Amino acid sequence: MLSFNARDPARVALFIAILAGFMTPFDLSAVNIALPAIGDQFSMDAVSLSWVSTAYLLASAIFLVPVGRVADIYGRKKVFTLGISIFTITSLALVFSPSSSFVILLRFVQGAGAALIFGTAVAILTTVTPPEQRGKAIGIYTTAVYTGLSAGPFLGGILTGYFGWQSIFLVNVPIGLFTIGLISWKLPGEWAECCGEPFDLFGSVLYGISIISVMYGFSYLPATSAYVMILSGVVILALFVLWESRNQSPVLNIRILVKNRVFAFSNLAALINYSATFSVTFFLSLYLQYIRGYSPQAAGLILVVQPVVMALFASLSGALADRTDPVRIASFGMALSGISLLLLMFIDEVTSLAYLVVCMIILGLGLAFFASPNTTAIMGSVERKFYGVASGTLGTMRLVGQMLSMGVAVIILALYIGKVAITPENYDQFLSGMQMAFLIFALLCGAGIAFSLVRGRRERRIQRREEKG
Length: 469
Description:
Helices cover about 80% and strands about 0% of the residues. The chain is mainly α and about 475 residues long. The radius of gyration is 21 Å and the shape is globular.
């Protein structure tokens, strides 16, 4: 049984991870509710508005892989503390943003701080927790993440409605300061299993440029220059993989992905799952406030159903992953997510709230039964010295998936609406685009189920060979 004990550094680390695990997703989900208010204040078009979320995800995706390696070399606690500090400072700065460009820039910096948090939190938890309790610890952390997601739409709607969108960033400041103080006061020691090894700066730059090129290209589709940027990003990513495969001290250990099929397919499943589900809240937030005319508070209350269900069942799925095959549990969760997306394809301007709530419940269950078991499978498939890289890789799959999900949203908005504000004149186009997005996401979930089951069959074959041997 895991419990908090202020004299036990392992339990303190868990408590700190819980605080950070709540703060970053709270900000992410609360911003989705505040997007119409931000757009109204700065007269932003639909595509530019999507960059308030996308800039955060882009920065996180760029820095997560290098951060995992940096943490393994120089210390996970140092990197984690720096991430909390950057996130807190930028949250305060966002309160005083004078323009939309400044908001997007600060969201990029805030995303970089979030990367330092995401890239180390699970690694620290895995390091300090005994293997037989690892699934439960990760489940508790995942519950904190989903609680932050749960509170985001509801509290974000209330804060935006009564105090303005700036207040959703201001609440991060006391949480961040308390977490920094707790790290300094109650968390001794450091974790750096690769101390002294060199850092691959060139590989990190290649990786960052490739991600920027692909995502920036998405926002300019269907222009010809957009395809050039996307293709350039893919080519640079291929060069990054080639460079990493020949580097003796890579920022991303390609050999783990090639030789460790459970690790590779589990990360691929995570990438697909987040690609298929993240921008659902983005679309539904706009749908509820623009098409249905709900206030930010009411929209947040409706959208809170999904993350509440996730938070309620994440610990259960984590505990189940300690006692049974985590791959099967994760595959079941992916299937539930796919079902919910198929149902969401049929919503229109007169869909009942009961129907929408049922869809949210199914999606929440799907994400809860996927995330914790999939994380347990990933962290249990690598050696201790690779925990930082594994945590960073998983975080990268999550954020790249979220970024790709927003990329689909950007493409859909660009193709169906264009770079104009969402108004009653283009509501029909918005609905058609949203329905097409949900169809694409449902198909992605189908592919994700296949990849998830493949790694499970391979893992069971290996276990049978070991038992015979």
